[in-house]
Amino acid sequence: RNRRRRSRPERRRRPMPYESGANLGGWLVQENWLLPNVLLFRLGPADIRDNQEWDYIQRMCQRGIDAVGSMRRHWASYLGEDDSYDLLTASEPPPMLRRLRSAGVTRLRIPVGYWAFEPPVLPGCVGQLQADASESPGQPTVPGVGAPSPPPVFSSAGPVLRSLSSAGLTSDGFVTGSALYLAALLRLLQPLGMRCVIDMHSLPGGSVKHMGYTGRYFDEARAFDGARAWYEASRNVSSSGTTGAKTGNGLGPGPSKAHPFLKRTVAALDTLAALVAELDAAPETAGVVAAVAPWNEALFMDNVKAAEELPVFTLAMVPRIRKRLPEDRFDIYLNFFNDALDWPAWLSANQDVLGGGIVAEVHIYHAFDPPAPDRCGMCVGGEAGMRSVLCQICGSDATMLQRYRSAGLRTVVGEWSLSTCGMWGNHPSQISGADFLYAWHASAKSSFAAHGVEADYFWSAAVRTGGYDPTLYAPHGRASRAAVLSDLEDVSQRSLWQAANVYFAPPDVPVPADYLLNWDYARLTETMTSAGFPVVLPGLHLGHGDAHGNGGGVVGGGAG
């Protein structure tokens, strides 16, 4: 407590221009709405409660489908144009990435799940899988299961990547090995001149409750439970000068066994940092990872818990990550998606502890707007809806961004879209006219840059249309596609299923290319306005505004 405080680091000014980015949503953390033709994602009657990646794996296991093989097929082919694309053996970037790069995208935000950084305990769908991770939150290991092998795409693979390449299932039923495909993608970004942010989208026990993007549905968010006790223990060890004595790894003590989800959370983030450091040292992937984000939208709609746990977790975890990922080489994106505290003020006040390279990440969506006196809510069509969205770009959105800039913080927009009406199918009130989307896209990018934002990441890079389904069905029996379609026909008669799927495309018919266009950046690069311009106009030259939001914006190519 009597340590000399570091002088506040001067806020860095990046010499690089504004960077455009996109999220690889649906790839390493599956979301059912981005995979509309995967039949097993549609069997649950309760929507996000029972139609996430974990549910997809369990249904494959119950039917005798090769879940490990299906997930690896998905990771290998998702970025290609058909199921034959294999990321592990590809020597050229997939067409989707080339389209995005041609449209000016230089950054990717890659959501990953904690299960990518845990060992397998079963080689596949063998034995009794745990139905509920909350009953056994620890992470046991079984010797000899899923012995790792060197990835074929690398001339050399370090020990961390080797350990994460094993095939199998984690103790709570997720398929392991996606880190291998992440590394395979990074080697293809390097020749494109693209860099990425690795975003830990889901944490053990749940970093956020009641959401459909966490791999499985969590009734409570328990990933940070015990954070205050861990923070105090870390401070006591550090102040006594014995940091790392309890672990032998130089990182200091981890959380106690009394908080098993927190212990697994810290272990997963430790492994992520170790993997990034290892990949940065490899010639094929050096310099590709620009930043990591240790959580996504943590404790949203959970303000009491957020105020208690997130500040101390951040103060304990960021210095721990920095021991492997130094601030002169890597940024850390921190996203506080709740109203528990004045987060811009908190980040500014704690710069001495957090150090440099900290970037505030904000998410801006108008697909879920509630009605308000000064704006239209979601799903308001026509001119009123258009005016409301465009006014908010320069109004409430700009005000929120300005709060971070006024606090002297570097800022990125980690997620945003061009949707006005949710994402659960093609709602008739969705505003999808190309001229409007062009105006919105250009206005938003200009506003972001004018208020000092360094980069934005559109959600999402793509929606997998055209009948994409990587499931390895059997020719006959319960594991066949025909059997799944028969069960789906029965489930679709339930009123709960019908209410959840009212605007979804039929799962058994290949979804057309313009399905969920407002969320599909790759498709928007090919969608033309009435004047003959693509919605995503390539070559926009964006400059930063100053700390007060003056200047910057679009230099070439204006908003409609």
Please give a structural write-up.
With 560 residues, the chain is of the alpha/beta class. Helix content is 31%, strand content 10%. The chain has 16 helices and 10 strands. Strands 1-2-3-4-5-6-7-8 form an 8-stranded parallel barrel, surrounded by 5 helices. The chain has a two-stranded antiparallel ribbon with strand order 9-10. Strand 4 (289-293), helix 8 (303-322) and strand 5 (331-334) form a beta-alpha-beta unit. Helix 11 (382-394) runs parallel beside helix 12 (396-406). The chain is globular and about 60 Å long. The N and C termini lie far apart (56 Å). The model is unreliable at 1-15, 127-148 and 545-560 (pLDDT under 50).
Mean of the pLDDT scores? 88
Number of strands: 10
Main sheet summary: 8 strands, parallel, barrel
Low-pLDDT segments, ≥5 res: 1-15, 127-148, 545-560
- The helix-strand sequence is EHHHEHHEHHEHEHHEHHEHEHHHEE
How are the strands of the largest sheet arranged? 1-2-3-4-5-6-7-8
Helix percentage:
25-40%
How much beta, percentage-wise? Answer: 5-15%
The SS-based structural class is: alpha/beta
Number of helices, counting only DSSP H or I runs of 4 residues or more: 16
The geometry reads as: globular
N- and C-termini, Cα separation: 56 Å
* Radius of gyration of CA atoms, rounded to a whole number: 23 Å
